[in-house]
Structures are given as C-alpha cells and as structure tokens.
Amino acid sequence: MAEQTQQQQVLSPSTHSITTTSVEFIQHINVENAKFLALVVLLCIVSYHGALHFVYGSDSCTWLLSDGRFQGPHVWQPYGCMLHSYDKRDARYCMRYINYWGGQTHILFVGDSRIRQLYEQLVHHISLQEIPTGAKHSDMQFIDNELNLKVEFKWMPVANASMYELFKSYLNRDKPNVLFVGSATWTIKADNASKEALEEYREVLTNVAPIFEQLKPYMKILWILQDPVLQDKLSPERQMITNDQLDLYNKAAMEVLDDSCIIWKSSRLVAQGYNGDSVDGLHVGAIALNYDVQILLNMHCNDHMNFNDGTCCASREPITTLQLATAIVFAVCMVASIVLRCCRMHARKVVANGIIAPQNKAKIKPAVGALAGDCDVYIVVSSLAKFGLIMAYFFLCDRTNFFMKENKYYSTLNFFLPFGYVMALGLFFTEDSKQTIVLHRDQTDEWKGWMQLVILIYHMTGASQVLPIYMQIRVLVTSYLFLTGFGHFSFFWAKGDYGLFRVCKMVFRLNMLVIMLCFVMNRPYQFYYFVPLVTFWFLVIYCTMCMLPQVSATSADGSPWHYLYMVLKIVFLIAIITILFLSEVLFEKIFVTRPFKALFVTSDDSVKEWWFRWQLDRYSVVFGVIFGYAYFLLKRFELLDDKGNGSLFSRGVCWIVCLLSVIGIMSYTTFTFFCKTKPECNEVHPYVAFIPITSYIILRNVAGFMRTRYSTFFAWFGKISLELFISQYHIWLAADTHGVLVLIPSYPVLNVIVTSFVFVCVSHEISKLTVVLSNYAIPGSWKYLVRNAIIFTLVLIPVGFSHGMLG
User: Fold this and answer.
1) What totals of helices (H) and strands (E) does the chain contain, helices first?
2) Catalytic position from the list 84, 283, 440, 738
3) Interacting residues of 522 by C-beta distance below 8 A, sequence separation 6+
4) Given the residues 58, 67, 85, 113, the one annotated as active site
5) What is the DSSP letter of 708?
C-alpha cells in the first residue's frame, strides 16, 4: 500500500502537467484560431496550385486530354475540369453556332479501324439521319451543309510514307480544324511484333513531326495513343497484338511527337478503366467510345458554348467594368487599412511612452488616443478590406481556372454516408436550453443548421436527380421560408415595432453578401434566388402588418376586434398571392416594371426563374404567419402551456398528436415516391408542404424533454446558415453550383474535408463582418441613415444605367 502511494506521488506531477497541457490545448480550439488555421492551409494550397500551373501549365484542354479517373461505374472525370455531356441537340447547336459566326467545322480522322470507329461514333452523334456503314478499309466522308460541317476519315492503318505524303499535302491546301491520328495495331500484326517494325514506326513519326510543327498553327493535331486490348477476346490472328507491344508503340509516339502535336492520353485511360463491353478485344466498347466522343466535343465546343458544367477548354469570362471598379475600391480599402494600421501602432507607442511635448498634450493627446483606440474609420475600412480579400478568393475559385473543378457524382453511398456522419455529430453535441417556448431561438437555429448541412450534401453530390430526395429538400427550403414567416410575424406581433431602422438593417444583413457577389462575380441578383425570396417575403410581411389598422398583441388585448383584423389581413394576403399565381401575365407585368426589373430577371432578361421559385413556395411564408398567429392565440387563451419543462398537452392528447405527426411525415414521404416527375410533384408541393413541417414541429415540441434539449453543433451552423447557403455557390461548389471545387486534386475525400473547413471558416467571417458593417451602414440616427442611403443611391445609379434598370 505504501509503495502504491509512493508511485502515485511520483506520477502525480507528470499527470498534472499532462492535464494542464490538455486544458490549454482545448482552450485554443475556437473559431478564431480555426480561421487562422484555414488561412494558413489556404496559403499553402495557393502555393501548391501556383507551382502546378508553373510546371504543367494552366490549359484545361491539356488536362482534359491527358488524365482523369472513373468516379464510379461508367462515370469518367477528367483531371481538374468539368465534362459537359453533349447530346445530339447540343452537338448540332455547337456546330450551328460556329457556322453562324462565319466558321467551318472540318474534322479529319486518319488511321485504322479503331480510328474509323471513333469517326463513325462522332457522325452518329451529330447526324439526324441514319448513316449507312461504309466499306471496310476505305475512305469515308460526312457533310452537313446546314451546319457547314465536314467530317472525313482517311484509311491509313500503317504509319508509312503514304501517311507522310498525306500530311505533307495539307501544307498547300485547305486544312481541317482538327486532325485525329492513330496507328499501330496493323504494324504489329503485319510484322509479327518485330523490333524492326517498331524502329520503322519511330522513323516515320520522326519524319512526320516537322510537318506537324508546320501545321500546328493552323489546326489542332491529336495523336491518339493505342488503347489496351483484352487478350482473351482477341482472335488467333491478332494474338501478337499485346499490351506490352502497344506500350512500346505509345512510348515511341510520345517521345517523338510530344513537342509537335497533342498526345491524347486520356482516351487510353478511359479504355483501360472500362472496356468490359468490347466485342472483339481490339475495339473499345460503347461506353468508352462514347466518352471519347464526349471528350472530343468538349475540346471543340466548350469555348464556343455557355454550358456551366463544361469548363474543360473553356476560356474564362471577360472582366467587366463593374468588376474592375469593385476591385479598385477593395484595393483602396486594403491599402488604407494597412496605412491606418501602421498609424494605430505608432499612436499606441506614443501613448504608451508619453512622447508628446508638454505644450501640445492638451491638443494632440485626445486625437492620438482616439487613433490608438478602435476608431470608426479604421473598423469600417479594415472590415471592407477583409471583405475584399474574401471576394478575391471567391473570384479566384470560380472565375478562373487557378483552382480545379470537377463534375458532381451521385451515388446512394455518397449521399447517405456524409448525411449519417452529420446527424451523428449533431446528436452527440447536445445540451439543455434555457428557453422552453415552442420554436425558441436555440431550436430554430438548430433547425436551420441541420437543414443547411443536408442541403449542402444534396448539392455537392448532385442528388437532385433522385426525385424522393429532391422533394424532401424542397420541404427543407420551404421550412426556411416558413421560419421567415413565423419569425418576423412573431416579432411584429409581440413588439409592435414597425420602424424603418429594423427594416433597413434586416434588408442590409440579408443582402450585403449577395450584392457584393453580384458586383464581383458578374451575376444578376436573381441568380442567388434564395435571398431575393427571403427579402421579398420579409417586406411582404412587414407591409401586411404595417398597413392600417396596425395590430399587435398589446393592441389585441385592448380591443378584441384586432384579432379579426389580423385574420382579415391573412385572408387578404392569401387572396393576393392566389390572384398572382392564377395570372402569370399579371405577375410578369408587375415584376418586369422598371426600375425593379433587374432584381427579378436572370441574365437572359427572363422573369421565368423568379416565377418558378416564387410560385413553388408561395404559401410557405403565409403558413408560417398562420402558425405563429395560432400559437399566440393558443397561449393567450391558455390552451397551450410552454412556460415550463412539461408537455404541451395532457398525456392522451400528446400521444394522439404525435401519432398524427408520424402519419403526416410518412404520408408525405410516400407521396414523394409515388409522384412520377418533378413538374407533377412541384404542382402539388405548395398545398401539402405544411404537413411534414407541422408534423416535425409537433414531434420536436410536444414533450418537454424534447423541446428544451437542442444540438449546439447544428445551432452553430444555423447562425451562419444564410452565409453558408450563398457562399457554397462559389467556394464549395464550382462553376456556379454545377460542379465541385477541387483544392486537393486526386484525393476526393481529403478535398471535401479541406474545402469544407475553409468554406465554413470563410462563411463565419462573412457573417461577422456583415454584423459589423451593418451597424455603420444602418446607424441609429436618421441623419446618418439618410446620408448613407444617398451614397448608396449614387453608387447604384451608374450601375442601374449600365444594366438597363433606369432606361
């Protein structure tokens, strides 16, 4: 016993030291340190990508044609860029567009039956008519005068003098836009895989290389590497064509032609990754062949088209005058912030050391003291400088190809695995709330938080293609709008405060990030559809509550007629919404009226997107108002008690409403599986969305232990849910939400972790800066508020004229 005590005394100092170190480490785990770490990680990533571009170049066409991987069965992902899937209509539209601007599409294929296979697949992909199969071992040609399109195939299965003469002839005649060449299997077969044949092959390519050098300024020349064969499927007379032999020929082509033409390597990787459907072991199967054509069309068409999900070979958008002016303003703020920072440091040294002449102390010391403290000018300028750096990161991610982008890929595992992780984390970090009322602040933050995280997973994985998941996400978006109606109505009803200061501050905080993004990213306000929706419905609720007679809980206690007035206001609002829905013409006339038109139209000057978003959740906000009003009435007449930790109703009633709620959720889920198309589901959605929402609220609040317990993990995300929703467009997703941002190439899981970490930290900082700037943009004084409104109007006037808002 004495020995044990002695050991404990010896170990205790060490144990105490370890415990102290652990506590100190935990104390340093906070948001600010996380954001500092995110900045360090981001600087390292920027350096890494800068080195990649310096060494390998930044041409996404090179990435498309050189590397890639299969994300899943039958889904090819090029390295670093997004592949648009061209159907027949897209392909013809591309050719027609090139023809419209005076161009011609002339594509030439030269080689053996493998190259002919690619030619036939391309023609089949473009032609509106069935093209008969041509004679084997002969030249072929396809012409479409409507598209000014010419596709040729020259049968030259062996790299020899004839091939050299063909290429030489194009020095003195009309040249194709694109030339595809490939050859090896016939040489291997004819010479029984001899070394002499390989040397002759190398010699011919050496002679061809200078011709390619001369032709390269006038056309794209692609040498197609030989695809691997399936040895067990090859016929006996082709058994000498082995993958080892093909590798030798590919190596020779890369060594000789690497500087004189483009080596198409990704075609071989596609065939290597999936060639199980090959019929004879020599020619690639339908899936690999289709991807070859898709790569070809992406290379030729993406720079002419405007497909958001096709970034390979696409040039970046030109910078507009507004973007340039915004960048200059942010740059000025950054310089001013640095200068003020230096002045503050000097002023603090002056104050600390007291180095002020005695006769000047009375005059100078107050000014120096103010500069050394947190003066308003420094706070505003430094906040704008930080915002400018964040906007620069947004621009770098989604308006350049500095960082890579990839297509979304959906699989059941990809969606439900992160969903399960997030839910488990949320349930792990729970604690008791000090609030007991229905839908208290902690609970609504939690609700917004888990909904936002699920929406993020939904967007990243491209789960919109699965109709039941799409409809469940629609309920989550509707729930946001429901909370908008419930929250704002609750404030106006309880406080009776209809002052313009709160309205201006709310509109500013909702829209600051989006307005900045419109300027920096060159996108219309309607592109970020959720903020226009939330802002619009907030103003609708404000106008409804503010119009005479103004009603509130206090006024209703004084005059019971005010309860009826509130009901009439709700009925009036529903009637207006229904009229606008029934008359799309009236709706368009209202929302395309200048100067507000620019707020509701997309880049193609159409109000259809706004109509779609508005009508899809047209009753959600009103339902939030109705729910809030019913809740206050139940409390007012003591039919519901949520002041303590007990249940809202008697035990029997609680069981009944919980059972009905479960039935409601299951019924809506069943509906999502039985409706067949998105338009059909969306048509019914506005009338039934309240069922799962009400069911969730009842299940979450009826029991006291459920109502007073909440997830701090979800609530934290809920407080920055708006910033997360908007920021995901450009710094988590990519290509305006059509793809996924890649900070760590070739490591998808690590990329998601790092990208998410940076994305969340940036969103939190944006939320913090918005709060700071809103206090200065919307001050408490009418004089300064009017001043800021005039400045904002003066800024918007030239923008309005340039975008057709004012004429």
Assistant:
1) 33, 13
2) 283
3) 317, 320, 322, 323, 399
4) 113
5) T
Active site residue 28: no
User: Which residues does 112 contact at the CB level (< 8 Å), separation at least 6?
Assistant: 155, 156, 157, 158, 182, 183, 185, 186
**Which residue in the list 87, 258, 277, 280 is annotated as catalytic?**
280
Amino acid present at 676: K
Element (H, E) at 123: helix 113-126
Task: Give catalytic status of residue 764 as yes or no.
Answer: no
DSSP 355-385: -S-GGGHHHHHHHHHHHHS--HHHHHHHHHH
Which residue type does 26 have? I
d(CA 600, CA 583): 17
497 in catalytic set: no
State mean pLDDT over 309-317. Answer: 91
Mean pLDDT over residues 339-368, rounded? 64
Q: 69: which strand partners?
A: 77
Q: State whether residue 68 is helix, strand or coil.
A: strand
pLDDT in tens, 3-32: 444 444 444 555 555 555 555 556 667 899
Which residue from 516, 531, 524, 530 is spatially nearest to 393, judged by alpha carbons? 516
Q: Using one digit for the tens of pLDDT, what is the confidence trace for 432-487? A: 999 999 999 999 999 999 999 999 999 999 999 999 999 999 999 999 999 999 99
Please enumerate in sequence order all residues whose Cβ is within 8 A of that of 195, keeping only pairs 6 or more positions apart, or say none.
Answer: none
End-to-end CA distance of the chain: 93
